[in-house]
Specification:
Elements lengths: L2 E7 L6 H6 L3 E3 L2 E4 L2 E4 L7 H9 L4 E3 L4 H11 L4 E7 L7 H15 L4 E6 L4 H17 L2 H11 L3 E6 L4 H5 L5 H9 L5 E4 L5 E5 L4 H15 L8 E4 L3 H15 L4 E4 L2 H7 L4 E6 L5
Parallel strand pairs: 1-2, 1-6, 6-7, 11-12
Antiparallel strand pairs: 3-4, 3-5, 8-9, 8-13, 9-10, 11-13
Length: about 290
């Protein structure tokens, strides 16, 4: 019997027990704190300690998976009778996806018998994880080609909403202008952001005050939820109480109890402590 493998990068923010439960493979990505390089999963920082460093002013950066790393990783996990579907971090946010596509092409050219597909998930953070779990469940009952087709269809229905606590981190990463960040922080602007149909992080709605923004993403999630996948994920960057508040609100409105995860170092480096996000299926992204 062929081994069916769903593969992801650690930007999916799924904990080890979920990766193991679904038999996934995951490549851990690099991040740095004040120039000191680490790899997710190496135990260098707890989530709380990492975000405390950011609050204290530490400079955090991330690195994409290069072509060599992608090829070495895919070559290893696709050996033998494996059928591998790699669900890559949105190509609109990183060059990692394109490096995986090139790596898979090279491996197939050298080893025509290998079955490897790379899908641009157009997702990020636990949205990528939400998507990966759904595709992994589908793969159990369907063949390789059917699952790739399903993955290409489903990705357009995975809705992401999130809010940040301090706009300076989005400005530092070029997601918004520095002037917008300064003004927004001055007037306590907490815009709701989302992933658009191209897999880009863009503003969705302007909201004043943290509490209102948290309530707004709960309202939006309940309004958009369509039940295609009867599951909702929430991820947070060291704000567990607000994550629980959001989960309770969403459960009351949808009947679905959201699963809560930590938002990892790679995504957190660009959004900052206090980021709160929610993921579910709805109609096609706007």
């Amino acid at each position: 019997m062929k081994r069916k493998i769903i593969s992801v990068e650690s930007t999916c923010d799924l904990p080890a027990e979920v990766i193991e439960k679904y038999g996934m493979e995951m490549i851990n990505m690099e991040y740095s704190v004040d120039g000191e390089v680490h790899r997710m999963g190496d135990g260098a920082y707890s989530m709380h300690a990492f975000y405390e460093k950011m609050r204290a002013g530490s400079v955090t950066k991330t690195s994409q998976v290069n072509l060599y790393e992608a090829k070495e990783y895919l070559s290893r996990i696709s050996e033998g009778d494996a059928e591998v579907i790699h669900l890559a971090f949105s190509s609109s946010l990183s060059g990692t996806c394109n490096n995986f596509i090139k790596a898979a092409e090279e491996i197939r050219a050298e080893n025509p018998e290998r079955k490897i597909a790379v899908v641009d998930s157009l997702c990020a953070c636990a949205g990528q994880g939400f998507y990966a779990v759904a595709v992994a469940e589908y793969f159990r009952e369907h063949d390789f080609t059917e699952t790739v087709e399903y993955a290409e269809w489903l990705k357009h229905k995975v809705i992401h909403f999130f809010v940040v606590d301090n706009l300076k981190y989005l400005a530092r990463g070029g997601r918004i202008s520095k002037a917008t960040a300064l003004l927004g922080n001055a007037i306590h602007m907490k815009p709701v952001m989302h992933m658009d149909k191209a897999g880009k992080l863009v503003p969705y709605k302007k909201v004043l005050s943290r509490k209102k923004s948290v309530m707004e993403i709960g309202h939006l999630a309940a309004d958009k939820y369509d039940g295609t996948i009867k599951r909702i994920f929430i991820a947070h960057a060291d704000c567990p109480e607000e994550a629980e508040f959001l989960a309770e609100r969403v459960e009351r409105e949808t009947g679905i109890k959201p699963e809560i995860f930590d938002l990892g170092m790679v995504i957190g480096s660009h959004s900052g402590p206090g980021t709160l996000s929610i993921y579910l299926t709805g109609k096609a992204r706007e």
